[in-house]
Amino acid sequence: MTEAAVFNPVADGFAANPYPHYRELRDTDPVQEHPLGFWFLSHYDDVTRLLRAGLSVEDRNLADGPVRAQYEALGADRAPLVASMLDRDPPDHTRLRSLVAKVFTPRAIAALEPMVTDLVDASLDRIADGGPVDLVDELAFPLPFAVISTMLGTPPTDQTRLRELTGTLVRSLEVVTDPDVIRAITEAEIALAEMTRDIVEWKRANPADDLLTALIAAEQDGDRLSDDELIAQVLLLYVAGHETTVNLIANGVVALLANPEQFDLLRTRPDLAPNAVEELLRYDSPVQQTRRITTAPLTIRDRDIPAGSFIIACLGSANHDERFWGPTADSLDLERQNAHRHLSFGAGPHHCLGAALARLEGRLAIGRLVSRFPNLALDGDVRWNGRLNLRGASSVPIRG
Ligand code: HEM
């Protein structure tokens, strides 16, 4: 009998390519009770079922316990960090999501196309002007950041500092045991909550036709949104708005450059861009995992998972499960018919609210880059950000 693989994100080569490791897990122990105390699901069907089951998302961050202890030691208030829709169950989840849902409908997002096109083209002009440039610094990061800042109506912000802080904050979505990292996450959370508070205060004095003003109005309305929830929602939109899409654009371009025949296909068939984005989301998922807590005993395959268990649903693995995708699961195929069935935006009640926006940004950024720079090539080594969950390229040197 083959020995079962154990989920091990510090294994050699995992950061650059976790997919062979996921395959071993799917083949040997698809519903894994991990020695660190959580469960790990790697099959497409199991992950889909779990996410649709409406399990709890409260207190589900792996770093929550140690980070909470840090807050207590510092006498700081963590409420603004855990009050967003992402980490709340109904009825709070339903109320919070409905407050912003109308801004993110496919129709509302389609209206942003001219604004996003202008931002993409400004980035592409900078790439055309310079010598070798970094795709992450010139396009993959600044584009989603500018788009969400414009939608929210935030004042000009110290982008470098914010990028550093949000990069640290998202480590709380991973298994973290290193006390230095835990301290850094806590400090970043506190600093971000303060920055968000300042931004909200500024907006109170400078209201406009934007999402932040609408949220402030909801808060002033009485019991629709508490003060902590307001800060948490804004921070979530800020972080979710750019820390994920950056990976779609950067990882997507890396994948296309590694598959030159697919790059050429997209260049000659720009009409493929929407499906190309779905396939790139499937091929290298910008968010690799999500987490749920069971509220009652749950049986998956032949395994009984007790109530109160912590389960990691591995989206990256589900997106490569050959039982669902067939023998070409590991290949990039921009013409794949069912590419849109990937789980990169999750599924069920917490399905990504920003999916239409991410698709728009991905289509315009990748589509326009490929058609404007037919000879696009790497100009050095790709560096990975070393994160397990929001895994992506942190540096992609290119030349047009
Ligand atoms: C939720 C992925 C872009 C806003 C989620 C979830 C995933 C995800 C997997 C579900 C998490 C869970 O079930 O625990 C992505 C990916 C993106 C992206 C891969 C880009 C390629 C965006 C953007 C925004 C956004 C651009 C907004 C500006 C949200 C929000 C939620 C969410 C608000 C929480 C929904 C809820 O809890 O009901 N996203 N996201 N996302 N995403 Fe995205």
TrEMBL record:
One Pfam family of this chain: p450
Source organism, top-level taxon: Bacteria
TM ranges: none
InterPro entries on file: Cyt_P450, Cyt_P450_B, Cyt_P450_CS, Cyt_P450_sf
Tagged with keyword Heme: yes
Signal peptide: none
UniProt keyword Cell membrane, yes or no: no
Keyword annotations: Heme, Iron, Metal-binding, Monooxygenase, Oxidoreductase
Family: Belongs to the cytochrome P450 family.
Entry protein name: Cytochrome P450
